[in-house]
Amino acid sequence: MTEQMTLDPAIELINVSRRFVSPTGKSLAALRDFSMTVERGEFAAVVGPTGCGKSTTLNLVTGLARPSAGEVRLMGGPVSGIDPRVGFAFQMDALFPWKSVIDNVMAGPLFRGKRRDVAEAMAKGWLARVGLSKFINHYPHQLSGGMRKRVSLAQTFINEPEILLMDEPFSALDVQTRTVMHEELLKLWAERKASVVFVTHDLEEAVALADKVYVLTAGPATVKSVYKIDLPRPRVVSEIRYEQQFIDYCKTIWNDLRQEVETSYRRASEAA
Ligand SMILES: Nc1ncnc2c1ncn2[C@@H]1O[C@H](COP(=O)(O)OP(=O)(O)OP(=O)(O)O)[C@@H](O)[C@H]1O
Predict the structure, then answer these.
(1) Any atom of ligand 1 within 6 Å of the Cβ of 155
(2) What is the whole-number distance in angstroms between the Cα of residue 29 and the centre of ligand 1?
(3) How much is the pTM?
(4) Which residue of 16, 147, 244, 262 pairs with 143 in a disulfide if CB–CB is 3.0 to 4.6 A?
């Protein structure tokens, strides 16, 4: 048995449920009997109808939310509060508008106690990797949406997260910039081999990036099916969408996901 095979998975959600109490005192189940395993170095994508419970799943992994039942484990241990091994990327970037690009990227290492010169050298290295060496003294408002996303990625990867949680990180970008960011992300991921959970509404994005795609049911979310994506790596995201194998994956998974999207839409229409 190899060493890799003996390691605990990066993330385990075991029969997790999560309930919320509404302002009127009604109890609402967001997740029900939800189980998911992300192995070390694996890229998992999560798709499901709007409002089904995708972000709640990530919040449980971060420790920001606790399960009402079941168990969440990271690297074989229970989740206990915010974990420094976990990095995040959300739809809204978290850049400080009053700090320059380099100061934004240095902020993480400085916070973790690195010396200023060390943090600066690290930040320069990461900004070079994402193609922003010429912009280190710019401020966020002087950058395009795609450039801000790159700063965000540098800001996340500089902390060398072992687990990376991404909640629709590229949904605000135009289609071409998204594709560039997909390539950028896969390149950084291949170098660092973090374990990723990537939440998205976009099935093609999920198939292009992931090793495994989880399809969730209309809320309360539970795992409806898991698809292993056996497309070879490294993947060229701008070209992969024209390959038959990619199209076949998308069709199959969409047939499955569509039923949940329709259920969710029907419920929303009935409630209106
Ligand atoms: N803090 C909270 N208090 C009460 N209800 C909540 C809370 N957080 C989430 N919910 C509810 O739980 C359900 C799942 O929400 P969640 O944000 O996880 O869904 P999602 O799949 O990420 O949504 P979207 O696709 O729109 O981004 C929703 O009905 C939401 O209203």
Answers:
(1) no
(2) 10
(3) 0.91
(4) 147
